[in-house]
Amino acid sequence: DTGVSQDPRHKITKRGQNVTFRCDPISEHNRLYWYRQTLGQGPEFLTYFQNEAQLEKSRLLSDRFSAERPKGSFSTLEIQRTEQGDSAMYLCASSLAQGNEQYFGPGTRLTVT
Amino acid sequence: GESVGLHLPTLSVQEGDNSIINCAYSNSASDYFIWYKQESGKGPQFIIDIRSNMDKRQGQRVTVLLNKTVKHLSLQIAATQPGDSAVYFCAENYNAGNMLTFGGGTRLMVKP
Q1: Tens digit of each residue's pLDDT (9 = 90 or more) over B53-107
Q2: Which of A33, B5, B63, B98 has its CA 20 to 30 A from that of B16?
Q3: Which of A37, A54, A91, A94 to mutate to probe the B interface, most B CBs <10 Å?
């Protein structure tokens, strides 16, 4: 257990529905990252927060995706109008500072039917 | 584009032997590298990291070697145990950026 928690661990939804995932980072970490991982591949960066500010977004993050970190602590990732291609493991990571090791949570596995 | 990759998708070793997992990177600006271990159904677990001003770093039973001349990174696991069975990813961070770029992973299988 790295100290990063994610909820839910699994989510099955029908195409077109909205889903929201939550990440609670290690408490003293001010940096929070979202990644997406498909089967057999390494994680791919989606977005990054420093405190409450979202400072970087990948081109993978389409308009249907939105992430927030309102109080600089936990973060949510929402996917609107889900598509089957959104099926993946969504991983959250946190770090103390830039260039330091990122600790990952257990992930939320999303299946879109 | 520039990427981080791995030479071997699957590595099978006998329990007690040493394991070596290799990784090639192409971005000469990369200045920080991490090895992660990922077990089925779990998130990546940090193993060891190394910065570009070093060529070797040792942890408990693990050693990471960095060869900047040929842009090569390796993870050595001593006395491999069944609990080491997992997928191993190398990741790079460059220009003090905020994202990690991961390779495709190597599956390590330890035979008893």
Answers
A1: 999 999 999 999 999 999 899 999 999 999 999 999 999 987 656 788 898 789 9
A2: B5
A3: A37
